[in-house]
Amino acid sequence: MKRLQLSFNELVKKNKEELLADQKRIEIIEKRLDEKYTNLKK
């Protein structure tokens, strides 16, 4: 049981790290889109 709990915690930690990385990628993409549309409006 202890081993299972440990691997579960590792999975949760890994998922959180991946989510943070994904959020950063999304923010970068959103910035690019904002810049594109801002430039188009001018």
UniProtKB/TrEMBL annotation:
<protein>
    <submittedName>
        <fullName>FbpB family small basic protein</fullName>
    </submittedName>
</protein>
<dbReference type="InterPro" id="IPR025004">
    <property type="entry name" value="SenN/SenS"/>
</dbReference>
<dbReference type="Pfam" id="PF13040">
    <property type="entry name" value="Fur_reg_FbpB"/>
</dbReference>
